[in-house]
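User: Sequence for 3-oxoacyl-ACP reductase FabG below. Tokens please.
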Amino acid sequence: MANSHTGRVAVITGAAGALGKAFALALAKNGCDVAIADINDASSVVAEIQTLGQKAFSEICDLSDARAIAVFADNVLSRFERCDILINNAAFMPVIPFAELTLETFRKFEAINVEAAFLLAQHFTPGMQERKYGRILQIASSTTGSPMPGFTSYVTTKMAGIGLTRALAAEFGNDGILCNALSPGLTKTPESAKNLPPELFDAVRHQQLINTTEEPKDLVGAMLFLTSEACGFVTGQSINCDGGIQF
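Assistant: Structure tokens for 3-oxoacyl-ACP reductase FabG:
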């Protein structure tokens, strides 16, 4: 599995920290060059990747802006000439009660959580088709199976991301491009630990068959498989990596 990443170019959104950073470093350790788009500065992640002997660059990119996405994609192709692996990891996920949700905010969820993935696929799949190889991984969410109050926009757009993944799998099934979604459970990151009560992590942990709180490192193995040559005949799937949570 590790060798199949050697010499590949991976593009990851939202990799300035937490889950995206864990993915970026794991791919670099397995031989990938990495490009990162994030609303936050990811230069420290780039520096870590470079210490691993791989090429990397990052760009501060507003993924709700189609023009910014186009500039980023052009810069990726200028630097690396291709994208072999696209991981749509960035997410907009404030908790907003339905009564307080505006159409403008709902559309921001759509833009970042769905439209950015669509636009990046438009930019990178032509090259994948030419080379008859590509991996597109959409980071979904276990909340699609168990929605909670305040998550209307997030759950809706994460479900749309799964739909996009399955549609792309149908479009590119004969082109060597495999498209899958990976759904984490409640994952403890600095941001989630700051925004969510500790008792929620405890409650979710007790609902899992694996009785430990999920962390970014727990998703790396599944990501590496779904972006590797070993994935071979798996496409159009939504795979849960949530400790076997029982709703």
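Helices lie at 18-29, 43-51, 66-80, 103-131, 152-172, 190-195, 198-207, 217-226.
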